[in-house]
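ingest -> fold -> write
write: protein_1
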Amino acid sequence: MTLTTALAVSNATAASVETLLMPGKVVRAHEKLEEKCAACHDRSNAHAQSGLCLDCHKEIASDIRTQHGYHGRMAHAGEGECRACHTEHKGRDADIVRLGRAQFDHKLTEFALEGAHRALACESCHKPSEAWNKPPVACSGCHKQDDVHRGQLKQSCGECHGSLSWSGGRFDHDKTDFRLTGAHQGVTCNACHIGGHYQHTPGSCNGCHATDDEHRGSRGGDCGKCHTTADWKSAKYDHLKETGFALLGAHAKLDCLNCHRSGNYKEKIAKDCHGCHRADDAHAGRFGGKCADCHDNEQWKGVQYDHLARHRFALVGAHAKLSCYACHTAYTATQRLGKDCVACHRSEDPHGGKLKGGCDGCHGQDAWRTGISFDHDLSEFPLLGLHRLASCAQCHTSLAFDSAPVTCIGCHARDDVHKGGLGRKCESCHSANGWALWKFDHARQTSFALTGAHAKLGCGDCHHETPGTQKTSPLCVSCHRQDDRHLGAYGSQCERCHTSYAWKGARIQ
């Protein structure tokens, strides 16, 4: 037998003896070391055993050295013995980790359990076949499939989302190039980031609101000069400073084109009431042009009318002279009398009950047959303008006053120069202040705005036939064919080069 063989036999014999003397089998993970006791035990120094453990378990040694992970954060980290917690020689299937789940403080790990994570079972993150320190600590490690942003944003999900709920993320938009102010604060993310795309989102007003620009780009792209983020329709244009005409009361609610009908805002318009409301003057100009003496900007009708007094039955006039029994003929306190005139004066009604409304609309309480007055404004046909000067008999040919026509055409059929071609609603254009006074919104009622030189033309300049009997073409060549020096070579869309302000001075696009 050689010396080498003898030593091998001697070592094998020694190892076999130690194996026979060990208290039990080691766990399956240490099975290969079972014959090598010195790999885990130092015969000369029992306290060196933990160092031998860390020589194999390098990840644990690194955690203790850097004070990370559970072993690096636990109390007295690096001072105790591994065997104080982890025993061996309990059999192949023994649990040497001896982790007490109920008592385990997850805060000592790299991932503290907060919010909804507290209710999860250990197996939700820790797979049975993996070490306890293997699960990822980043949100994307577990929630990659839940990322609705599809990786467009940074992986630090905690900057926006909390641990209580995946939904309801918070994001400080002020840290971006576009601060959310005004109405922008109430919109959802998808209102601007269509389809969840967060890159290349426009930062200018026109980028999102080009279709809302009723000026069609004529005032440039800096919408913030007049508009705010609080409300798109609330412009901050100082009309008093820029034009000398303050928009107060009802004027503040008007659209710009209600007054600037030509669409040319540089064109000067009248600043007095009659400049716009001449046709609305029920006084037909008899009170002059200082409408503000009676009317204000809030409403055109400035007279306070106490309608409540008209619905009581006070004993005034002739009624004040009557005895109680003149009306209350029954000897009972429960008798109910009508409060209208007809209840007592039906037999005295010369109109045979054909008139609508109460008798007090015409008759007073001092005398039934004298002092007759009638407030025509309370009827279906208020007397406006020149109608106030007409006598009753001019329209009412009998005491059945309600038989009189209430439409313009009912009395003015012979005055209709349109011969019925424009329908029966004469009031759409004409004013009661005079048949010749009329107002017609050509832009709204015909879809052809009279701008530029067209605004100065008379109706007959374009409508050569009786107005209303034919439709006039909106094409330029329908009136300017003789002015077309191109002889139709450039088509019929003259507005591509010419404007309505001047036929000459064409612009070439």
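write: protein_2
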Amino acid sequence: MHVDIRIRRFNPEKDAKPWWGEYSLDDVNPSDSVLDVLHRVKWSIDGTLALRRSCGLGICGSDAMRINGGNALACKTLVRRLAAAGSDSVKIQVEPMLGLAVLKDLIVDMEPFFDHYRSVLPFFVNDDPLPADGRERLQSPEDRAKFDDTTKCILCAACTTSCPSFWADGRYVGPAAIVQAHRFIFDSRDKATEERLNIMGEQFGVWRCRTIFNCTRACPRDIEVTRAIAEVKVALTTGKV
């Protein structure tokens, strides 16, 4: 296939404002990913292009970006899915995620995102002695099912940076952090439920969500993000998990 790719570029060391780099590639395999296309641009056309990537398998979450107007992982977005039916050419537009400062080209500053992540205590809390037999803390399949969906988060920030509430005020903890809080709030073995719910109930906590569903559509792991947020709101309102 023929690919015309338009990439939003910005180097703070020399650019006064962002600009668009436009590149054309022939003989692109339709099964190639957008990440493959970006690699060809960087390795064969313009070595100054900056982007994050690691595993290339949709697991690390490092190559989240805006592709044709929506957040996605570049490694999971295939060229053929962006082309019109029967077409042997495609136009792709790639931009950094919104709501986070651009460090260079497609690389954004993830520290505010991870600050919100850390704020919800995203770790297991239980100082009770282990069972006398020394085995792990057991949990029923039914209890595990309550938070199974939110264990899938890979912290790519696609949900948070697609959220208008986060764009409006970066102090909002954001969907990803709420997903992480949900994962432990609904874990029957964890002992910090009340503390996390207090965090969720703060000014820039879960109530900043306006139920727009951008987060759910953006999630590359198909997590029901909006549903998880709603369940945290119910837990806050009723005191029950």
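write: annotation protein_2
The longest strand covers residues 2-9.
The chain has two domains: 2-107, 110-238.
pipeline exit 0
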